[in-house]
Specification:
Helix content: 25-40%
Structural class: alpha+beta
Radius of gyration: 19 Å
Bound molecules: (3R)-3-hydroxy-3-methyl-5-(phosphonooxy)pentanoic acid
Strand order of the largest sheet: 8-7-9-6-1-16
Largest sheet: 6 strands, mixed
Strand content: 25-35%
Order of helices and strands: EEEEEEEEHEHHEEEHHHHEEHEE
Number of strands: 16
């Protein structure tokens, strides 16, 4: 009754921001993401006799704050009448800092929980279950370029392009490692209720998705870069115009955006994207990865960089 799964975080190029059903955690818009290769979360789920008292350790330390969400995820996958669980989650990158650690953690938890309980689900079913815990987690059940669509009252996921067909690189510039001030669920609801730009954001999303999907089909880096940066800045404009305003950036985040602009002006194939945190993710062609990494690590305020390619879907690595 024990299983271990590994999942990589994914970075949205066309973002999900806002929910159409908070109780079922259904996103208000579709999204397109890339699953990463070198950042990962490994989750073990051990089911044992007894019906109460789940336990969670995160990077080797007992964690009470994430436990309710993990227990809820286990209920969704296995059912509420289940044995108690001992869950351990280990990530090789900063968690709760806008690096999509919840995506990899809940994708791996869903997969490990199903296997530990002896349940077999198709990948699309697992993705829907993971999506109930964290909207972006659904996408980590797939590798490479992934589209999440809203279909009826559910989500549907498709692999748009595999890792080898367009092996882009991502340089993550870490500018701050503390947990974020406002979690994404709460922040999305503040945006929905108060941002004057929220309705335009929702209206324009299908057009951005179409442009990005076509750019990926054609391997058109420039077109993907333009729509991804535009979509990211629109999402942050929605947040900035919310009440209270939500600004996840710091000075180094803006410094990194300027660095990316300078790289673009010098002919580099690179673009940035930023999630609900102060880190910059610079997406580039493999031939430009060294120059992008050097420029970002030299940008004032950048603490560390991590370089990664695109990676595979979440997978089971052990079951006993
Ligand atoms: O899945 P959540 O609740 O962590 O929300 C993810 C929100 C963004 O990272 C900002 C955008 C996205 O599509 O991943």
């Amino acid at each position: 009754m024990q299983a271990t799964a590994i999942a990589q975080p994914n970075i949205a190029l066309i973002k999900y921001w806002g929910k159409r059903d908070v109780d079922r955690n259904l996103p208000a818009v579709g999204s397109i993401s890339i699953t990463l290769s070198d950042l990962h979360t490994t989750v073990s789920v051990e089911l044992e006799a007894g019906s109460t008292g789940d336990q969670l350790s995160v990077n080797g330390v007992e964690n009470q704050s994430m436990l309710p969400r993990i227990s809820h995820c286990l209920n969704t996958v296995i059912g509420e009448k289940r044995p108690r669980a001992r869950v351990s989650s280990d990530s090789n990158f900063p968690i709760a800092a806008g690096l999509a650690s919840s995506a990899s953690a809940f994708a791996a938890t869903t997969l490990a929980a199903a296997a530990a309980a002896g349940l077999s689900f198709r990948t699309d079913q697992l993705a829907r279950l993971a999506g109930q815990a964290s909207g972006s987690a659904a996408r980590s059940l797939y590798g490479g370029f992934v589209e999440l669509k809203n279909v009826g009252d559910a989500i549907d996921l498709t692999g748009l392009c595999d890792v080898d067909s367009w092996p882009l690189q991502v340089v993550v510039a870490i500018t701050e490692t503390g947990p974020k001030a406002t979690g994404s669920t709460q922040a999305m609801e503040i945006s929905r209720k108060t941002s004057p730009f929220y309705s335009s954001w929702i209206e324009q999303q299908d057009r951005d998705l179409d442009i990005a999907r076509t750019a990926i089909e054609r391997r058109d880096f420039e077109q993907l870069a333009a729509v991804a940066e535009h979509n990211c800045l629109k999402m942050h404009s929605v947040m900035w115009a919310s009440r209270p305003p939500m600004v996840y950036w710091n000075c180094a985040t803006i410094g990194c955006m300027q660095t990316v602009r300078q790289l673009q002006a010098s002919g580099c194939n690179v673009f940035f994207t930023i999630d609900a945190g102060p880190q910059i993710k610079a997406v580039c062609l493999p031939r430009d990865v060294d120059v992008v990494s050097e420029a970002l690590i030299e940008t004032p305020g950048v603490q560390e960089i991590m370089t990664t390619g695109l990676g595979p879907a979440a997978r089971l690595i052990d079951k006993t």
